[in-house]
Design brief:
Blueprint lengths: L2 E19 L5 E21 L4 E4 L12 H12 L6 E7 L10 H16 L6 H11 L3 H5 L4 E5 L4 E4 L7 E6 L6 H12 L6 H10 L17 E2 H9 L2 H11 L4 E4 L6 E5 L2 H11 L5 E5 L4
Parallel strand pairs: 1-8, 3-4
Antiparallel strand pairs: 1-2, 2-4, 2-5, 5-6, 7-10, 7-11, 9-10
Helix pairs in contact: 1-2, 1-3, 2-3, 5-7
Length: 294
């Protein structure tokens, strides 16, 4: 095999609680992530020229080390000692950028998994996840074939969760690029100094495992919570306005995903979701009606 086509799904955060800040600057989280059927497309190809070539047609993205997709390929080739192999990657973006939907993380995970398959490298999922966390906190979630997961630590300790069922998800991106770093730093400043005690750290370390046999926490719309929404919505009023519109048009729950600025609505009535999508897409070009992955 010399070519491989892949789909990289987006995610939404149904719950995001910041527990504390670590000495390395990362934040300890308790978050529930759900994959949804909105995809970037990637094509991986083996070449005879020993380098990495990344192409991002129709997207204003760097095609070098400044792109997490490029770094994922670099990391995989380095970790597996296959650095002499040439790789071409074509990335076609559909997931909005800097939107709280995990597009870059998903793309990076797809490259790790795709190169493992394409090069028959034989890396286990756990080995790929260990590479993934070097690229970003959300990347391990996309390495595992989990439609939904609770995540602890910086987002890298995963516990399989029951996926959303019986709802349609409406994603609305108002076109505001939000820096994840800015959102977390602003939250920390607003909340004052937050730090975990040793006991709290040990507690969090002990409960998160993909192999865990614990009873999964079942998500309900009333559980929707995102610590970062407070600071992002305080700066961008469109966030709160979009939430209200989704709720008044039939969503049983609405919230900003991740650090934003995408707002999602959960609809049990598919016709109401369709009608809302039809209206909002007239105002917002990046509006998507999708299903949660199960």
């Amino acid at each position: 095999m010399k070519e491989l086509a892949l789909l990289a799904p987006a995610k939404i955060n149904l719950y995001l609680k910041i527990l504390g800040r670590r000495p390395d600057g990362y934040h300890e989280l308790d978050t529930l992530m759900q994959k949804v059927a909105l995809y970037d497309e990637l094509e991986l190809m083996l070449t005879d020229v020993p380098d990495i070539r990344l192409l991002c047609p129709d997207a204003n993205l760097p095609e070098n080390e400044d792109n997490i997709v490029f770094r994922a390929a670099q990391l995989f080739l380095s970790q597996t000692s296959i650095s002499a192999q040439g790789i071409q990657i074509v990335l076609r973006k559909r997931i909005p950028l800097a939107a709280g939907l995990g597009g870059g993380s998903s793309d990076a995970a797809a490259v790790l998994k795709g190169l493992n398959q394409l090069l028959a490298a034989g890396c286990s999922t756990e080995e790929l996840a260990a590479m993934a966390v070097q690229l970003g906190a959300d990347v391990p979630f996309f390495v595992y074939d989990l439609p939904a997961a609770w995540a602890g630590g910086i987002g890298d300790r995963l516990e399989a969760a029951e996926p959303l069922r019986g709802v349609t998800v409406l994603l609305v991106n108002p076109g505001i690029a939000v820096s994840t770093k800015w959102a977390y730093e602003t939250f920390s400043q607003a909340a004052g100094r937050i730090a975990l005690t040793a006991a709290e750290k040990q507690f969090n370390l002990s409960i998160f495992s993909v192999e865990s046999g614990s009873i999964p926490r079942i998500f309900q719309p009333e559980m929707l919570h995102n610590d970062l929404e407070v600071v992002t919505a305080a700066t961008y009023s469109q966030i709160s306005a979009l939430k209200q519109r989704l709720l008044t048009t039939g969503a049983v729950g609405a919230m900003m995903s991740g650090s934003g600025s995408t707002v999602f609505g959960l609809f049990r009535d598919a016709a109401a979701a369709q009608a809302c999508w039809h209206e909002l897409k007239k105002e917002y070009g990046q509006t998507f009606l999708v299903e949660p992955l199960c």
